[in-house]
## 1
Amino acid sequence: MNNFPENPADTKPNDSAEEKAYHEHYDRQIQALESAKAPAHSTRFIMKVVNNTEHDLDANKNTLGLSADNLATLQLPSGGISVYGQDFRYVRNPGSRSKDIYHHCIQFGGMTVGAFVEFGLRVDTSFGLFAPTVTPVRICKIMSIGTTPINCTARITRALSTDPYSFTMEVTLG
């Protein structure tokens, strides 16, 4: 499951009312993805990226194996928003102490201005007297890269507390 805007460059807001409607449009898209049933044995990851910089920041490197067409849809014009969603296979062996479910990164921008976003899910298991305790560990990190630093934040906005521990994160650049 991948969800990309049809043409992000055409949806850039012009004033505060348009900007609010713009965010609401993407938030509704995220809510639809969060409420849609995930395939069996899958954990859903959703990421909203907001570019508040004065620079166009395209996704140019990733560990997801995205095609050139998918990367092209992750263009982030100045003031733009993008939503990315993917279902990852969720398999956990009951006897294992720790299991990486997925761990990936996407780079927006480049050597002058850019950000490196890292996300993932690991499930830690500790064995108690009667039953094991399963603890999800979500990775939600961002780092400014390039010669001109930009302010970056990443936060988890929704996290399921039960298997398969799906979560949504929001990344703000600038």
## 2
Amino acid sequence: MAFAAPFDRIDPTHRLVVRSPSAAAESDRPDPLAVENRIVEIAMDSADAVHCCLDRSFLDAADPARTKACNRLHRVRESDRVLASGEPEYRAALPADRDAVRAYLSVDRENTDAWLARVFGIAEFAIITDDSWLYRSVPHHDHIRELNANAVDGFLDDVTASLESIPGSGVVPFDGLGTWQTEEYRYAVTARSIRRSTDGDRWQTFDLDRLRAVSLVPERSELLLRWDSPATDSWTRRAFRTVVGRGSTEPPSRVSLPDRETTAEFAGALREVADRLEYEFTVEAIDA
């Protein structure tokens, strides 16, 4: 699922990430859907319409109020589709239908049926202007929360400011925070992991939730990484990850980089993602 022409030529610039650390109490975890709705409100301030693909039967069964809101939407002709999903597509004109959008995107953690409807009853939605798009989401895939910061001046700044009060949430560059080549591996830092590859195609992934400390050793152009052990992995899962990862699933304890500048860039990317998303690991420089 993605955009139809001509919006399919406009690439996302950033993605929304909402972390839910497993150690946190349920009441302390931010609801990703409620966080997303903050972005929706900001995007609607500058948008002309919201397009959504709905599973109407599920919505009908889950929440009559939400169904009433959906009945205010207009079915989009095939030639006017914005989304490439095979589901029926509906349009809410802004600002006239803003309340209807709020109603069908509403979140109630205490009402399990309504919460599930918000996740699975909406196949996909996008907030658009006449000639671009600002935000796209596939609610049941938490990695598809995409922003186009180029659509409207100040959009990214407003989103970033709105998320400052929500621990573990933020927007990060869509393609990750950088990639670096060593003699043996290629490394990449994303919002959730350090990734490692020998061929640029198949990657081993190491969750940043397990990372506890990064020590920068400028004189040796290397990073020392300290990790926690996986808390709940069974031997079958470890064996599977070993097979698909082409070798040991143990995360790297040492990364040797070509020079001091590259080492500082890698460490800087880790420090940035730790600051933005409030990971527990630290990034400190030490003497060789």
## 3
Amino acid sequence: MTERQLAPHEAAITAAGVRLVLHCDIVGELDEAVLALALARLRSCYPLITGRITTDRAEAGPLARIGETATGPFLGHGADFDEEISAPLNWEQDPLLRITVLHEPDRPGHRRVVLTLPRAFADAMSYVAVHQRLWTLYTALSTGRPAPDEPVRPVLGPALDDLLAARFTPRQLRDFVDERARLDTGAPPALLPTPASRNGGPGPDLSFGIIEIEADADQCAQLVRRAHDASLTVNALVSGILLTALRTLFPAPGGPVRILCTTAVDMRRRLVPPLPYEVLQSAATTTSIRLEVAGGADPVAVGQDLDTRLRAALENGAAAMELAAFPHMLDQHPPSLVITNVGAITAPDLPDGLRMVDVCLAPLGHVPMVFAVVKRYQGRLTMTLNYSRAWYTDTQIHALAHQAATLLTDLTA
């Protein structure tokens, strides 16, 4: 038996039911029997995916537990993507990984494979590595090659909260939290209204929505050039597009609106020693950046402002402190937008006759936050807006997507 108490940030996002969905689009003849065998081998590589989150010792808080006789996950089947990503989950009874092959009637010749893990035990880097290992096993089994199934260690690593908290004194963390509270009390950031909510809580529609804004290969190349010309990362420029689009949904035309952008920061390579991407763990923190965005703002200028503040947060330790001080941050102001850039995802090697035409990640939870995820795949760049219909309406998020798509077109014309 292997177990560990959940750290504060893990416990909070587990209590909120936040899941991380990875779905890929397969064209060709997918052998589902071989995929089921590959999944069985994946359990040997990652025992954590067979685990549970239990509260049977409530006084100690929730635990992640891997039992010696744990079984599952098993390959499921479905026909509707929206139903699959919104399926009710119970991590106390079910294995942490859910995997389903979808046969969608309106997409002949395609299979969508959907993996779902609790966000508490996965980040983009490790999730992509798990996904790559699954398809490496599939290809090996399909072609008669050796299938690597040695365990990735540590199976259940130490919480990122503890690793980062050791860098700071309690006084440093208290001062950090107090300063953040002072900033937001003096000038509260703007938030999207939540018309789908009821009496201050989630509304009755417990489904999720995902909307994509895609730049094709030519647009993506032009976006990279625009970022380079402005001495920006692509992440900063795309964040500028998203934040400028968000600004159009608030009143006060022309005047500045204070926006609180939470940007995900991969801490793996910043740990000593670095944490390999193959280790399945939540090893990303977030940095909350406060920006004044005027009506009609230039997304390049907004991206430059964000980039400057993000670099400062990394250099002065604010990114690490934000997670180290997590228990004291729970009552602070929520973000206007959460942005995660997962970078370029590499297509796995597959047997002849099988192609993976897309891979996407989506954080989903019934929380009053819109999660934007940016990724590149096979030369294309995609921004996805992920949201709960218990808080937001499709009309709202489609309006945000339309504004982002318009700005993207203008920048890449």
## 4
Amino acid sequence: RKIHMSTYDRKARMEQLEREHDEWEERMRIKNKGDMYPVWATLAFGLFCMSLGFLLARSV
């Protein structure tokens, strides 16, 4: 059994992953943009919490 894939296999896999990612991106774009709002809100909240934690850690 070969441990590592040949370069061709790896290249084919990368191309497949890229195709899948592009298709996923297209589906996300087609779905209306309002659906992205909760995601952005969550990300913003996460960043807010991180900066808050960072400030608290520095002040201690």
